[in-house]
Amino acid sequence: MSPTDNVSHRAGTGLGTRRRTWRTVDIVVASVLGVAFGLIFAAWNNFVYPTVSLPLEATPFSPVIGAVWLMPAVIGGLVIRRAGAALYTEVVAATTSMLFGSVWGLSVFMSGVWQGLGAELVFALLAYRRWGVFGSLLAGGAAGLAMGINQSIVTVPEFSLGWKAVYVLAAVTAGLVAGILSWFLVRALARTGVLAPFASGRVQAEV
Amino acid sequence: MIIAAGAVGRTTGAVLGRRNPVAKLGAAFIPALTLLVGVDPVSSGLILIAALLSVPAWGLTWREVFRRGWPLLLGVTTISLGNALFTARKGGAVLVDAGPFLLTTESVAAGSTAGMRLAAIALPGVLAVLTIDPVDLADSLVRHLKVPARFAYGSLAALRLAPLMATEWEILGRARRARGLEPGGNPLAAIRLFGGKLFALLVGAVRRGSQLAVAMDARGFDSQRARTTARISRFGPADAVLLGCSVALTAAAVALAVVTGAWNPVFSS
Questions:
Q1: If you placed Cys at B57, which of A137, B16, B23, B193 could pair as Cys (CB 3.0 to 4.6 Å)?
Q2: What interface predicted TM-score (ipTM) does this complex get?
């Protein structure tokens, strides 16, 4: 974690004055990650969700398999390392799945906004400086919490309070899973060298 | 892959189909956000019926909507069942009593209401999106909602890679099959293969995205000078009328629910 922190001061274009603004490569790569996950969402939404997870879906434990919804937020934050990256990537993913015919309409977009905000809030509280496994776990957990609360209003409003609590806890669990998976995924991405334009891709050079 | 390249929406010539994308999304958003506040069959039912009746006005056919929307039907059914099973409202006559699973007339009614409300939240957005071309959407967001152009067109550029990614997904699968890597009914192997394909897809996507960004910068995408638009997006009186109708319909639905006594704020139970 600590070598990463040293690097992040020189992140971005290398010009200190522009460190906080998004470069084109930040925007496009965040978007591309969002679109890739959006396609997975769309396939999941329309096929996996109503078929494979059918027996689970009617229960308060259904969010446990929802980690995939939360990954773009954490991955976007970890890769781009800028304010707004987690929210932006998650919203692009949600919008993509909506445009590619998700049957859940705008509720997908709203879920994306809340989940992205959850992860974004954690990265903001860590002052956009900590991108280690701890931050990923927290960001994933917060995204999961946001998902649980949002879904308990949108999809399971009639659950009793106790079952709603179980539902939200299941969502947080999914969030923690998403956090750790995303961290491993970004580390693996960095090792392939494709993250060279980003501070997150320079971690390996430091080791 | 299951997602066809042409799966995104297209503008139709019908009265609602040719409205501005921002107006369409706004019109779908108003009832969706309002229905979040309460859970009752009257307001949800009215919005759902209105959305179903509006299908021809979007330039869509019933068959088309059903062909795209059947997973919603399935999802709504299971979600209704879930709500009926795990609700605290277990009054009325007992219908099913199997160990921990208890269904009563009241719980089934509560579950159906939750399902219907979800359908009413989702359907207007589905109809709007089926008739929205992503290019028009980006133009409209920049022009009318002042979304930063670099983000709107940057994400549009990435969206254009979607068919490529879908093709690549297929190629990755075929490459693995050529190497003899097939799940063959083993779910663990299937998950591991899926993970490997997903990772390869992301690596390819990020690489292509970085190249795309360089190409865009070479064409002045990051320029600080004032930007002009290639296509014109108009928000006309008809678009305002669409938004007005959506507000009126939503208000009528809520008013009817309150008058009939069905109105039930979401946090009351």
A1: B16
A2: 0.91
